[in-house]
Amino acid sequence: MAIKLHGQPWSNNTVRAMAVLNEKGLDHFAPGLDYELCPVDLRSGGHKRPEFLDLNPFGQIPVFQDGDGSVFESRAITRYVATRYKETGTDLLSASSAALETWLQVEGSQFNPPMFRIIFELGIKPLIGMSTNMSVVENESDKIGTVLDVYEAHLAKNKYLAGDEFTLADLNHMPEIYILSKSAKFDLIDSRPHLKAWWEDISARPAWEKTAVSLPF
Amino acid sequence: MASVTVYGTPLSPAVSRVLACLFEKDVDFKLAPVDMAKGQHKSPDFLKLQPFGQVPAFQDELTTVFESRAICKYICNKYPEKGNQTLMGGRDGGLLAQTSVDQWLEAEGQSFNPPSSALVFQLAFAPMFGFKQDPAAIEQNEAKLANVLDVYDRRLGESKFLAGDDFTLADLAHLPNGHILVSKNEDLFMSRKNVGRWWVEISARPAWKKVVEMQNAPLG
């Protein structure tokens, strides 16, 4: 069964999907979990072609395909892979429903919007030939402080976001923090001791290291 | 006695999203008001329930959950046998059906919610609270939302509801902002044939009508 991930390695959303696939494929318990990264040429409008719109009518990357169907929206993809391959490798859903659902949603609603705006300017634009807007960076860096303070207090009392184990809630944060770690704004994480310790722990996971080496950042 | 408490006002879109789900699931609840004008949402007691200082907060006995879409999923997971049994994946209920709900719920959160919330603020809350409206913000967000609704119109020409043949959380999530926007500018939704058909159907659901009744109830 061929797994295809349509996207680009400079896209944080694509990296989110790559991260979960690597988490599930690492110990080779599921042969054939290797996937093909199928580049979508955004510059030439590859994402607006009818064949692509059939896969994702929003014309966005990533799109995931396996023998059973196709999925768009990176967080739906990571949820699907974590559920489908629950018994393989680390169980990424091992937390109470309340904590897991809460922190999965916090990432998508509170953390990602300002964080994406920062890392898009600092990390992604340079790779795709666009110029960074530093006033957006400064603006969003100010706003995200209060959100990160909540994380800092939460991680002072919890080893991982949803409890004692690494879960999808932690994983979904990794692409953006990684891209930030390559930028001049990493002090946003680095200056907060529990956030910093949590990042050092989760980014040392072998599956993450496998993802990171394949990225252009 | 209800083991569930929702903190917040039914006039908050995020709170009303949770109320819609509770009514769909026939789960009894208590609504506890949060006096935002007096800053109750930033009080130490409230921050224990919702550390971002936002409504809704939610408690089921000793379990706390926040983020309205997370609360909805929690309710569906905790009470699978009650009320509407297809909110998380239709009659099928299998992984692919659940994933379709997740996918369209993410589309709502990532693509529909930002421009629709901005418009709800500009068109409804700004005038209500005496803030000045920003015509450029209105124009930009209407354009963004129009693009999203075009995608929805295509999808809803192929599928009865967003995730498939059944009404699910993916559709429900749109009710709060949709309700306000349609009251201010019906054209956005109703000028698109399939979106219009879908909107009429989902907003007519008894559970949503109960929420609207709560929103329209006199204060006190």
From TrEMBL, chain A:
According to the UniProt entry, where is the signal peptide?
none
Q: What CDD domains does the record point to?
A: GST_C_Phi (cd03187), GST_N_Phi (cd03053)
GO terms for biological process?
Answer: glutathione metabolic process; response to herbicide
Q: What is the lineage of its organism?
A: Eukaryota, Viridiplantae, Streptophyta, Embryophyta, Tracheophyta
Keyword Ribosomal protein assigned? no
Under PANTHER family, the record lists:
GLUTATHIONE S-TRANSFERASE RHO
Residues spanning the membrane: none
Pfam annotation, one family: GST_C
Which is one Gene Ontology cellular component term of this protein? cytoplasm
Report what the protein is called.
glutathione transferase
Which GO molecular function annotations are given, in alphabetical order?
glutathione binding; glutathione transferase activity
Family stated for the protein in its record = Belongs to the GST superfamily. Phi family.
The record's listing under InterPro entries reads: Glutathione-S-Trfase_C-like (IPR010987), Glutathione-S-Trfase_C_sf (IPR036282), Glutathione_S-Trfase (IPR040079), Glutathione_S-Trfase_N (IPR004045), GST_C (IPR004046), GST_Phi_C (IPR034347), Thioredoxin-like_sf (IPR036249)
TrEMBL record, chain B:
| PROSITE patterns to which the protein is assigned, alphabetical | GST_CTER, GST_NTER
Which reactions fall under this protein's catalytic activity? RX + glutathione = an S-substituted glutathione + a halide anion + H(+)
Q: Which UniProt keywords apply?
A: Transferase
Domain of life assignment: Eukaryota
UniProt cross-references to SUPFAM superfamilies, sorted A to Z:
GST C-terminal domain-like (SSF47616), Thioredoxin-like (SSF52833)
What Enzyme Commission number(s) appear in the record? 2.5.1.18
Q: Name one GO biological process term.
A: glutathione metabolic process
**UniProt cross-references to Pfam families, sorted A to Z:** GST_C, GST_N
Domain (GST C-terminal): residue spans on this chain: 94-219
Annotated coiled-coil positions are: none
List the Gene Ontology MF annotations in alphabetical order. glutathione binding; glutathione transferase activity
Class in the EC hierarchy, top level: transferase
Q: Where is the GST N-terminal domain?
A: 2-83
Q: Which GO terms describe its cellular component?
A: cytoplasm
Identify its protein family.
Belongs to the GST superfamily. Phi family.
Q: By what name is this protein known?
A: glutathione transferase
Native organism is Rhynchospora pubera
